[in-house]
Specification:
7-stranded mixed β-sheet; 23 helices; globular; 7-stranded parallel β-sheet; 17% strand; alpha/beta; binds magnesium ion; 22 strands; 40% helix; binds adenosine-5'-diphosphate
Length: 696
């Protein structure tokens, strides 16, 4: 890193104190470095000038060369607009401004030659362009390659800042710095034929061709992702080598007894593999931090249970935490049942556990009588202390924050092994970044005999058809879920929707029992309604998304999602996972309005086209961006990458990670002379960032 890059931006030729203030306030640009890395968000192709006559159909933004010949102001006050006619000799086109009317009118002249750039749109059978970029035409300035377009705020536009201004400032900066120090070692540059940093920064601002631009982008994306991975991995590795864990040396009676006599079904290949991975971790003498990803219904619970038995076999206690009471108590019931012949002492601790029971649990945890504690956030409380906690399983991990995970570390002097599980598949590139410090196991195989859920999209006009279908399924003895969205801002209306739905369903299916569940119910009532469905006393459950996680009713074969357009992909996939758990063919029916935006239509199509949670997750990330994915907010990692995009640059992420891994393996503390550049760059980039990986 050149020291000159830390120079205050006000000293750059063409900036000065006033512009410096605006740059700082509006875009956080304070130094040469900040300006250099303020990259264009798109480019315009200055290699070609179109003619007005050629304009047709749905064109992208194009460049025209010509003259304005009239300006007229229309409307008053806030509705004031400026219209101009622009001609290039082949025809004319209307140009419109909805703001900056006065400024535009004053700065443009009739008859003078300009280059304008914008997207033609058809309105009232005529093409027009609104708010084009405009510059004076200079005879020798044609064919300037590509031109960067930069982020600007309204305030900046009003102070006469334009993309052009940025181009000039970047020019001035690049010629002032002369030479930008390389941040990557030569062997990486050579091996992967990456552009040098100086050349890449030059080309990202002023590319002469698409090819140059692409090479510059690759280099800078790689830089960004590589240092991110290097930073994550160096802490992960140093932590792994430092933090001792309980050594679970042997497999004993609990595990063997269960495996030989009480296993409810043969393990799938994937379950076996993951259990092996866990055994290797917990036997290594270092603390395990493992993420277990597996689609809904893939059988993670069994893996969790068998892991706890290894802890018990070695004289330790274990704990399973779930995000909701319903889920925790369901785990409690199914785990107790599975282990009923093994002779383990299991308890359930949630927010609604009675005081006397809670006191008993506290005591038994302390004196070691209790083997497995299952619970909700209540387990995290400081008053909950163990005699010798060896393993913690956190289910549906995306509902917990990093800080909460860290709390469990403190429940024993040597931190317990941690297994976090999630059914919200995370795209690999994201997992590598957010959970870069965790080892990842994947259950990529469903238990045998499952038929893929058939998913269809139906509009309101098909409702009678859908009801007929539900009727047929009920006759076959199956159970049905009908789910309504519940959005906080309009709770009242949503609840009304839900109640209306409930009444309609009762009237439509009078001979069947319908139960009713939503988040605002008293826990006991909710529990009661759920139990009606679980025990098959009720045939249809009308509910909000409270059923999203965990409920396991293999006899349910139809999931109807009302207003499916209001759900995100992750949620839709979770809901669909409630059916298809038994051997019967199951169905997921997405009900929606006809009028859908392009994104929504795409989302629903993803659902009808695939059952694969990982594909759903990839698409979700492309639509929403990595920063909005579940679980990423608590990660402490900034997703404000300047140029790389985790949703689209998967291959570069992988490459960056592989190289970073190789380097850290050879030199865990990055102290070899050839890695000095890397260390310096890391401390420059990450000096301000809190390091979550140290505690997670
Ligand atoms: P999830 O991964 O969503 O937590 P669960 O652990 O709840 O999945 O398992 C889903 C269902 O699959 C349960 O009914 C469970 O009993 C069953 N199951 C789990 N493993 C197997 C297996 N190896 N063979 C058959 N069924 C299994
Ligand atoms: Mg589960």
């Amino acid at each position: 890193m050149n020291n000159i890059l830390l120079t205050d931006i006000k000293f750059l030729k063409g900036v000065g104190p006033k512009r410096a203030e605006i740059l700082g306030k509006e875009l956080g640009i304070h130094t040469y470095y900040d300006l250099l890395y303020h990259l264009p968000f798109r480019y315009i192709d200055k290699t070609h000038i179109h003619t007005i006559k050629e304009i047709s159909g749905d064109m992208p933004s194009i460049q025209l060369k010509g003259r304005f010949f009239t300006f007229t102001t229309q409307g008053e006050g806030a509705r004031k607009r400026l219209h101009a006619l622009f001609t290039d000799g082949t025809g004319n086109i209307e140009i419109v401004w909805f703001n900056s009317v006065k400024r535009m009118k004053e700065s443009l002249s009739v008859g003078k030659e300009y280059i304008i750039f914008g997207k033609p749109t058809l309105f009232n059978n005529r093409y027009s362009i609104s708010h084009p970029e405009i510059e004076d035409y200079k005879p020798n300035s044609e064919s300037q390659g590509l031109r960067g377009i930069y982020t600007l705020t309204d305030k900046m536009r009003n102070s006469n800042f334009s993309s052009r201004t940025f181009q000039q400032l970047e020019d001035s900066l690049l010629s002032t710095i002369k030479n930008i120090d390389e941040t990557l070692p030569k062997f990486i540059l050579d091996q992967y034929k990456l552009m040098g940093l100086h050349e890449a920064l030059y080309n990202i601002h002023k590319p002469q061709s698409i090819h140059d631009l692409q090479r510059a982008q690759l280099r800078l994306k790689f830089d960004e992702l590589f240092f991110l991975q290097l930073n994550i991995l160096r802490y992960a590795k140093s932590r792994n080598s430092k933090i001792l864990g309980h050594k679970f040396e042997h497999i004993g009676d609990f595990f063997n007894n269960f495996y030989n006599n009480a296993l409810p079904f043969p393990l799938t290949g994937a379950q076996k593999r993951v259990i092996k991975e866990i055994r290797r971790d917990v036997g290594s003498g270092r603390q395990m931090n493992r993420l277990l990803q597996g689609d809904v219904g893939s059988g993670k619970t069994l893996v969790a249970v068998m892991s706890t038995l290894i802890a018990l076999d070695n004289g330790y206690q274990a704990c399973i935490i779930a995000p909701t009471e319903i889920l925790a108590s369901q785990h409690y019931i199914s785990v107790s049942e599975m282990l009923s012949t093994i002779g383990v002492n299991i308890a359930l601790l949630t927010g609604s556990t009675k005081k006397s029971e809670r006191e008993r649990i506290h005591e038994q945890l302390m004196n070691g009588e209790l083997d497995i504690l299952i619970g909700t956030h209540a387990v995290l409380e400081d008053t909950v202390n163990f005699n010798n906690l060896g393993l913690v399983v956190i289910d549906e991990q995306h509902r917990f924050g990093v800080a909460q995970r860290a709390k469990m570390w403190q429940k024993n002097t040597t931190p317990p092994h941690i297994l976090v599980m999630t059914a919200t598949p995370i795209p690999r590139t994201l997992a590598m970044t957010v959970y870069g410090d965790l080892d990842v196991s994947v259950i990529d195989e469903l238990p045998p005999g499952r038929k893929p859920v058939t998913t269809v999209l139906r509009f309101d006009e098909h409702r009678q058809m859908v009801y007929r279908f539900i009727g047929e399924q009920l006759k076959l003895g199956r159970q049905i879920y009908i789910v309504y969205p519940l959005i906080q801002e309009n709770e009242k209306l949503d609840l009304q929707n839900l109640e209306e739905g409930y009444n309609t369903i009762r009237e439509t299916f009078p001979s069947y029992r319908v139960c009713f569940v939503h988040g605002k119910m008293r826990p006991a009532e909710k529990e009661h309604q759920m139990q009606l469905f679980v025990t098959h006393q009720a045939h249809i459950m009308v509910a909000t998304t409270v059923i999203e996680v965990g409920v396991n009713v293999p006899n349910a074969s139809v999931m109807v999602i009302e207003n499916a357009e209001r759900f995100g992909l992750a949620q839709l996939h979770q809901l669909r996972g409630r059916v298809g758990r038994g051997a019967d063919q199951s169905y997921c029916i997405l009900m929606s309005h006809q009028k859908l935006s392009k994104d929504t239509r795409h989302r629903l199509n993803v659902m009808t086209n695939t059952n694969d949670g990982f594909i759903v997750a990839e698409e979700d990330m492309k639509l929403r961006g990595p920063g909005d994915m579940e679980g990423t907010q608590q990660s402490g990692i900034s997703f404000n990458l300047r140029i790389a995009n985790l949703a689209h640059d998967g291959q570069i992420v992988q490459l960056a990670r592989d190289i970073a891994n190789e380097i850290i393996d050879k030199d865990p503390t990055l102290s070899l002379p050839e890695n000095q550049t890397l260390t310096r760059q890391l401390s420059f980039l990450f000096q301000k960032q809190a390091n979550w990986s140290l505690i997670s």
